[in-house]
Specification:
By secondary structure, the chain is an alpha+beta fold. The protein is built from nine helices and six strands, in the order H-E-H-H-E-E-H-H-E-H-E-H-E-H-H. It is 34% helix and 12% strand.
């Protein structure tokens, strides 16, 4: 069940949509308007009982008994201690992004994190070829971290007492958002085919009678319109 704060947010969103619909009806353009309601991200964990805030990842690594002697632990400590320049960075929340001062340390860091996955609350460590399946190669694109750590569901790498959810990771709570498409001419139905929010743009272009194939990103990524709308 929604908490009082979330329930208030839902009521406010519902009231805002109602005002939009009323305004469109007053202008006589409601029938020709396509509504697409979604969100750019979710929040994790959805279930507050699963909340786990053990502290920042670098601090957890530093607390391991061999962190000052293992090459992987040393590389993480150097990246976390870096304040300026190309010496690395550790940025964490409900996912941890690690840029290393020396990319040659990537394999050692990955091995060390996986070896201590239980103590560090890690579900998966992405690096190397696995990381390049979803992101640009960190060897040629400095924006891509050398390693991405997805923690166990519900874990937020923070010491804050105020946080009750966060976003940015790959869990269902982060990535699974509602998506509603509405128009008086659409037959009510639930479509369970997996979709992604990037399909919203090409759907809007198609609804306007334009060609989505003229969008460069749609051509490169082979993005299709949302299913079931243009039959």
């Amino acid at each position: 069940m929604p908490t009082p704060v979330l329930e208030y947010g839902l009521r406010q969103t519902d009231a805002a949509l109602a005002r939009m619909i009323a305004a469109l009806k007053n202008q006589g353009i409601y029938e020709s308007t396509l509504f697409i309601v979604t969100a750019k991200h979710g929040q994790s964990p959805i279930n507050p009982i699963k909340m786990n805030k053990p502290g920042h990842l670098a601090d957890l690594v530093a607390a391991l008994p061999d962190s000052t002697t293992n090459p992987g632990g040393i590389a993480v400590a150097k990246a976390a201690a870096c304040t300026t320049g190309p010496c690395g960075l550790v940025q964490d929340d409900d996912v941890a992004l690690i840029w290393l001062g020396n990319q040659a340390d990537t394999a050692a860091v990955r091995s060390y994190l996986n070896k201590n996955a239980s103590a560090l609350f890690i579900e998966e460590v992405m690096a190397g070829n696995e990381l390049k399946l979803k992101f640009n190669d960190p060897g040629t694109d400095s924006r891509t971290p050398d390693l991405i750590v997805q923690p166990i569901y519900g874990t937020i790498y923070t010491s804050s007492s105020k946080k009750n959810a966060e976003h940015g990771g790959f869990s269902f709570g982060d990535t699974g958002v509602g998506l509603i498409v509405s128009n008086p001419r659409l037959k009510p139905e639930v479509i369970k085919s997996p979709v992604i929010t990037s399909q919203v743009a090409v759907t809007v272009v198609e609804a306007l009678g334009l060609d989505p194939a003229k969008l460069k990103s749609a051509r490169v990524e082979h993005t299709d319109v949302l299913p079931g709308l243009f039959k």
